[in-house]
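Write out this protein's structure.
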Amino acid sequence: MSIQEFFGWDGYSRTPEGAYSWQHLLYVSGLTIVMIVLGIVLGLWERNKDEKRKNLVLIITAALIDALYLLKILVFSFRGSNPLYFLYDLPLFLCSIMFLAIPLAAFSKGRLREAALDFILIFGILGGTMGNYGAAQNFNAYPVISFDNLINGLTHSISGFASIYIGVSGLASMKKKNIPITFAILLSFCLLAYIADILLPYNYMFLMNHDGTPYVIFYDLVQGNPVLYPIIVVVLFLLYIGVFYAVYLGILKAVQKAKKPQSV
């Protein structure tokens, strides 16, 4: 396979293997295993280190994911005929929000940093798994071994890695008082995504259409209503945050209770 064919400069001559083909599942499963193992191993390695040392991993992660994002924009802009391609690949999808959220967590301080870390913990693993397994339409459009699927797989997996690393290393605070800030981060991105969807138009955060994702259930439920459907999508995000907090804090409370010495 030539470099031109890998990058798809003149389009791909190979037929895509297809969504949920064994090639698709093997490819994304390999990335997911690496994502999980690296997150756990590095998280345990850094768990007892100071905050500055733990944060160094986040800084490297932020630099890597943003470098890949800029490479993607550069390649796609030169490859296509639209010099404004980048407008259709802004970091306004749930998984691509990590291009901004990880640097925010790495370089901010105080409650904003705590909320950003919690946000990554909550949504990074969702973006990592759903981006690799759920965004199956990519494997209908491009061959498995291609720049498009490689860059998508890597960025989704880095998001998942960051989530696991934050959880295992003990960087997450998951304080109840930071929930409103976590909500605010999500709602801000949703608002920006909705504005972009209207102006371009496009389908950031899948607020306009399900685009082959599991949101099809709710899209069909309201028959694609342009008001109800995006509201349902945003409410689902908020519910997910609430459920994640409840489960996380419930498990933490149970673990702490189990560690207490039993009175005789």
